[in-house]
UniProtKB/TrEMBL annotation:
This is Flavin reductase. GO terms for molecular function: FMN binding; riboflavin reductase (NADPH) activity. Residues 113-259 form the Flavin reductase like domain. Belongs to the non-flavoprotein flavin reductase family. Keywords: Oxidoreductase. It holds the Pfam family Flavin_Reduct. InterPro entries: Flavin_Rdtase-like_dom, NADH-dep_flavin_reductase, Split_barrel_FMN-bd. Coiled coil: none annotated. Transmembrane segments: none annotated. It comes from the Bacteria.
Amino acid sequence: MRIVLKPGLAPRLEGASDFRSFSIALDPRLQGDLRTAAAPVGHAEGDHVWVRPDAVRALCATAGDGAWSEGFAAMVSFAKAHGWVDPSGCIRAHVELLDEPAPVSVDAFRQAMRRFASGVCIVAAGEGDQRIGMTVSAFSSVSAEPPLVLVCLNRSAGSHDSLVNASSYAINILGAEQEEEAMLFAGQRGLHGADRFGLGWQQSDSGAPVLTSAHHTLVCQSEAQHPAGSHTVLIGRVIDIIPGRGTAALVNYDGAMGVTSHAA
Ligand SMILES: Cc1cc2nc3c(=O)[nH]c(=O)nc-3n(C[C@H](O)[C@H](O)[C@H](O)COP(=O)(O)O)c2cc1C
């Protein structure tokens, strides 16, 4: 059996009917103060803990059970014979560290993020046959004064380097009827680079491609880039806003695209 000690939680007894071993399983975060961590069940001495038998009984759901009491008494006698019981009756337990808490899996993270409804945009830069653009939903306002926004771009995207190096770009917020544009710029129609840009695109004064039918467009000057995990966080200073049509907005939610229930 072992007593599990974790920060902020009451001690827990595991494997209560295993009388062949006795230990303390300590969360690594409590390692620096074993004395305090062990206090609810006994007292620390060096790298081990003397555990009060009554503390073990209090943690054991089957302590009233005759078979358990017999097994526990036999375990204490065995420990006594080896000098592992002190004059006050406390049982010596060695301390083992619990494994680090399991990290959040990629799958669990993705599932959680699917629950966050977001808009859908095309971030686009360059002119003529140097135009480049990709669909993003990781877009957010950062600050109103000065007006800053961010988009998160996967470094593995073919458009990543050109967008990160562009001095200006346009963030075209898509409207309800623009799911096909979103798929096109997500690379789902087999077109790349400037081939994704059909009719309906114009250059802004700063030279960034603007989708004239977009829900709204923010033209940005590149302000900063921060590497973060698999992505680059691109921060842009908004230098122009091109109002769009008052349609409903395109949204990305639970792995599918949908539309808002009302128009702007
Ligand atoms: C609705 C939707 C939202 C997306 N959001 C992002 C995003 O925020 N960041 C990102 O890097 N990729 C995002 N993607 C994936 C990119 O659009 C896709 O990988 C990219 O267009 C591929 O570009 P490439 O052909 O230049 O490699 C999204 C795709 C879809 C369909």
